[in-house]
Specification:
globular; 264 residues; five-stranded antiparallel β-sheet; alpha+beta; 14 strands; single chain; 5 helices
Length: 264
């Protein structure tokens, strides 16, 4: 039985399973939900405070000392149009940013879904699609018939010496409350409400992201998946949630890449 107790979060989730230790909560939940879709309804959660083979964007791996971080993967089965699935990780990042602020840290959302405090990363998010039950979005629009697993890793109680890189931080370092139960409950409640908004009013959900995204209006440097670099001003998001970057060559919509907020 895990020592990680999450009673408040359990009351928010439709199902919450806590494991003592695992390689990746995302991988575990993807497998479990694919094998037993009925057993893992919308807003089901798999969590641990000891994840040893976490995965981030671009297949990066990361690991934290046991008990110093929270890894939580959430299964979402939203009734949305296929073109709106790209907004799910953005909404998750926004929900986590708000939860971290509620914990007492000045969280800022960096596109697409990293949460920063004081310019240093405190949380990363990774979303994965998997087959799920078919449904219809509001207004009868067709959906993809898939579910999404959204994994998050939050540095809770790490000391400076335990940080994996100098550009990371933790809630404890920032003087915030590192309580995993309160953080996860706030995150799940926010994510639930934002996904419901995306179902009912996609434009309003997109506006929430744009308003809450710290990247908009900043000078950025984007390391692209092909090895190239794009610099310019982040001016907004397109209808798919891609970052729009303006420079002398015009406007480029970026669907994937590592973004750095450039300071002058």
């Amino acid at each position: 039985m895990s020592a990680l107790l999450l009673p408040t979060a359990t009351a928010v989730a439709s199902r919450l399973v806590v494991v003592d230790r695992t390689g990746s909560t995302n991988s575990d939940l993807v497998r479990a939900a694919a094998a037993d879709p009925a057993g893992w309804p919308h807003l089901s959660v798999l969590a641990t405070d000891d994840q040893v083979a976490g995965r981030g964007r671009l297949d990066r791996s990361w690991q934290a000392p046991a008990g110093t971080s929270l890894a939580a993967s959430v299964l979402l089965r939203p009734a949305i149009a296929a073109g709106n699935f790209g907004w799910i990780p953005l909404l998750a990042g926004l929900a986590m940013t708000r939860a971290i602020r509620a914990a007492g840290a000045d969280g800022a959302l960096k596109w697409p879904n990293d949460v920063l405090v004081g310019g240093r990363k405190v949380c990363g998010i990774l979303a994965e699609l998997l087959p799920g039950p078919s449904s219809s979005a509001a207004g009868g629009q067709p959906t993809t018939g898939v579910a999404v697993v959204v994994g998050s890793g939050v540095n809770l109680a790490m000391t400076e010496a335990q940080l994996p890189v100098p550009t990371a931080t933790s809630l404890a370092i920032e003087g915030a409350d590192p309580d995993p139960d309160a953080l996860l409950a706030a995150y799940l409640g926010g994510l639930r409400d934002l996904v419901a908004l995306l179902e009912a009013d996609p434009d309003a959900a997109r506006a929430e992201v744009v308003t809450g995204l710290a990247t908009i209006g900043k000078e950025v440097r984007v390391q692209l998946p092909n090895g190239g670099t794009l610099t310019g001003t982040a001016t907004g998001l397109d209808e798919s949630g891609r970052l729009q970057v303006d420079n002398d060559a015009g406007t480029t919509a970026v669907g994937a890449g590592d973004v750095t907020h450039v300071r002058y």
